[in-house]
Specification:
Two copies of one chain form a homodimer.
Chain A lengths: L3 E2 L9 E3 L31 H8 L4 E3 L2 H7 L7 E3 L1 H7 L4 E6 L10 H13 L4 E6 L3 H13 L2 E7 H6 L1 H9 L3 E5 L5 H9 L7 H13 L6 E3 L6 H7 L1 H12 L7 E5 L4 H15 L5 E7 L4 H4 L2 E5 L8 E5 L22 H8 L6 E3 L1 H15 L8 H17 L4 E6 L7 H8 L10 H8 L15
Parallel strand pairs in A: 5-15, 6-7, 6-9, 7-8, 10-11, 10-15, 11-14
Antiparallel strand pairs in A: 1-4, 2-3, 4-5, 12-13
Helix pairs in contact in A: 1-10, 2-4, 3-15, 4-5, 4-10, 5-7, 8-9, 10-12, 11-12, 15-16
């Protein structure tokens, strides 16, 4: 009874897969607030040119540099598990597989892109990276990459998380990164906010503004900014997850996957597993590909396709994506990584082309699923990942009802050992569901009045 | 440049190695307080007979049941890493390797014995296991094993840890175990203590008493007790670590290890890596084998070889071991897993036969080493493991001074993601060293006056 499928070092994928090359319609460019496209050159103060090239590339396959492969090999290829115990507990005829990304030293999939981003910056002569982080998953992954590659890393962490969730801050410090609460007195953006709202808990939007400001205002030109999701090159780097999975499934002669599931906040862990299979779907395969979001932040299931800013402070270009509006503040669910107002342009694009079937699930169902998973499969998943587990259980029970031997695959994007408080609150009955009324979303979207709109698209 | 060596499923060791078979002199039996040996039958209310047989076995090799192998395979074989980055940072000609046990879902080596212990109990018809835990590493490992194997698990957790270190308690609950603060009102031992000292912070000794009492007083006879270190069968189960390592070293043609290092509290992670190499040493190999302990709890470097109880409440048999006295209370260092008054009888025995070279290191040197390790190799180690890292750095620098290409191997017994507060205190300058004055130890050992003494032994 095979429970785990591994790959050898020499079986690691040598190239990343770029979905942009295979979509029917071309992607829309990011825009300035004036409605004019942002050219690659205009991004040069923020990102190194080698990453900007990846961001706009239309090549289907992009080589993974050998040194990056060696660094990824420290914890990759990650294991693919067959969930025999969960299947048995559900009494389902479905075969359930999960790819386990919690084996990285930072505990999630985030280092898959932190490592190449740090490496390309280093190649480009950059000495220091700035970034923002909410609960700290991305900040700690970039700190880890900075330690391995030899780059200074500075993380602006949303103040309320900095104060209330100190553990990932300690991880960053241990890896040698500087982590400071945002808003801070070290940037103009931070000082302006502090002058107006000295007691603000901070926000991702403010932290992004501070991180970008610090990057672009370094007089030596040796500082750049790094982002952990949403952008095309981040999706690209994560496709190693799905490419490995394909090889693992082939090893055990599992020829056809029927359902693919991943949780989606910015979209990168979902895209990482799913995009190589989206390619199969484009080529005719019958696969149900499901990105799962929390009902409290229904970007994919309730939000229109618009041009919106990536941050609340409107520092970023306008990006073509499904968005609840950059001012939308999701309820305080424990899956902090899924509390983002938009979803990656590439994921949005694939939704618009009818390639994905997004789903929203409530928090309580997700925790219930995660507890069942821990008590059968033995892994405590991150609150974000619990959304993928809940969707998987739904699909497995559907297969049971239909009496079908479906093959279901999901991405176990990270372990939950740093997020146990959510479980404790669940057991104590202190968590609740949130359904966002459409009016709240409509109100939030009014902020986009007067900004450019994307051309009407199918399913948009 | 090879950074990681893996093994395939079919390369997993099929047998555990029992050092007891190869020691020159026979081991001393555990004794009752009256000085009479404890027979296997007398242990039957506490442990299932199949584990008692392992505890007293003199067989060199003991088969690992196929089902246990399948469960261990969920995260094993664990990776063996070459520490290129640390070597480079130290400028040492030594080749440094580490076996990484933090890949288990509980984050340490503890599940290597929790799984077989739970399995043998289940085979024997047992329905429920009781145990004690301090900081919670062992309790969470047993909870994990109980979830996978289908046994009820009840953990008595030292009250002060239960209150101050809630995260491993939450892990246990998520895996379905019951975790209650000790002393509790549910046992006679607990009630007695609470009556005398209602505000006691608890102790491992009290928690052991409660766990054993609950096990032996189950009228159905379907409850047993499980211990996470010290005993012979625990050392046995952990040898899978060293046996895998030997195969991994052979794969990369590394023929001879010069120095082997592991941290030692009860002794099980050290024994797990080292015992298969102790066998080589007995057969003539020139290897320096170093168990490392904190200077604040110098069981191996300052304590005599005596008969002592395993717990402060004197519920256990008298065991032949190096001990600071069962009443010894170590200073509050962060490596909670190394704060034990004794060291496993088998490790004690190997010390007495001159096979090991124990070393004590202070807390601050250990944290400094752990930070260097995190910033070069990218893994944040547990505070216990930091002792092994510090000893490794000492040996690597010695090799540099001597200009020798030594091969150094250490056991990275667990990650530190649940123990980041220690790192934060280290950075804040709030930690200190502790040296235990000999007089304190001598005073503590007076508690053993009037109990049986072991016969005089070499090096004892």
């Amino acid at each position: 009874m095979q429970v785990k499928v591994m790959l050898e070092e020499n079986e690691m994928p040598r190239q990343w897969y770029n979905l942009a090359a295979d979509l029917k319609t071309p992607g829309l460019p990011p825009l300035g607030p004036d409605g004019n496209p942002i050219s690659p050159d205009m991004l040069a103060p923020v990102f190194p040119m080698n990453l900007i090239e990846q961001e706009v590339s239309q090549e289907r396959w992009i080589d993974i540099p050998e040194e990056v492969l060696q660094l990824l090999y420290r914890w990759r290829p990650s294991p693919l598990y067959r969930a025999h115990a969960l299947e048995k507990a559900l009494g389902t005829p479905a075969r359930i597989y999960y790819k386990y990304e919690g084996v990285s030293p930072a505990g999630s999939h985030k280092p898959n892109t932190a490592i190449p981003q740090a490496w390309y910056n280093k190649q480009f002569g950059i000495k220091k990276l700035t970034t923002e982080t909410g609960a700290g998953q991305w900040g700690s992954a970039l700190a880890f990459a900075g330690a391995l590659i030899g780059l200074e890393v500075k993380v602006y962490m949303v103040r309320i998380s900095f104060d209330q969730k100190p553990f990932r801050k300690m991880m960053m410090q241990t890896w040698g990164a500087t982590c400071i609460p945002s808003p801070s007195p070290y940037t103009q953006a931070g000082r302006d906010i502090l002058a107006r709202m000295p007691d603000t808990p901070g926000s991702l939007g403010i932290a992004i503004s501070e991180a970008i400001e610090e990057a672009v205002s370094d007089p030596t030109g040796q500082t750049r900014y790094a982002l952990g999701s949403v952008l095309n090159h981040v999706m690209l780097h994560q496709t190693i997850i799905g490419l490995e999975t394909k090889k693992q499934l082939a090893k055990i002669n599992e020829k056809k996957v029927d359902v693919i599931i991943g949780c989606a906040g910015g979209g990168s862990n979902f895209a990482g597993l799913a995009f190589p299979f989206v390619n199969d779907k484009i080529n005719g395969a019958n696969i149900d590909i499901i990105p799962v979001e929390p009902s409290s932040c229904p970007t994919m299931t309730k939000a229109p396709f618009v041009y919106d800013f990536g941050d609340t402070a409107k520092m970023t270009p306008l990006m073509p994506m499904h968005s609840l509006g950059h001012g939308y503040i999701p309820p305080p669910i424990h899956a902090g990584g899924l509390r983002y107002h938009g979803i990656a342009p590439l994921v949005s694009h694939a939704i618009n082309e009818g390639l994905l079937n997004p789903l929203a699930i409530q928090q309580l169902e997700c925790y219930e699923a995660a507890v069942k998973f821990a008590r059968t499969e033995g892994i405590i998943v991150a609150p974000e990942t619990s959304h993928a587990v809940a969707a998987t259980i739904r699909e497995a029970l559907k297969a049971k009802e239909e009496g079908k031997e479906k093959v279901i695959l999901f991405n176990l994007s990270g372990h939950g050992l740093m997020d146990l408080v959510g479980y404790e609150k669940f057991f104590a009955g202190e968590l609740q569901n949130y359904e966002m009324p459409l009016e709240v979303i409509q109100e939030s979207l009014k902020e986009l009045d007067g900004y450019p709109k994307p051309p009407a698209m199918t399913n948009a």
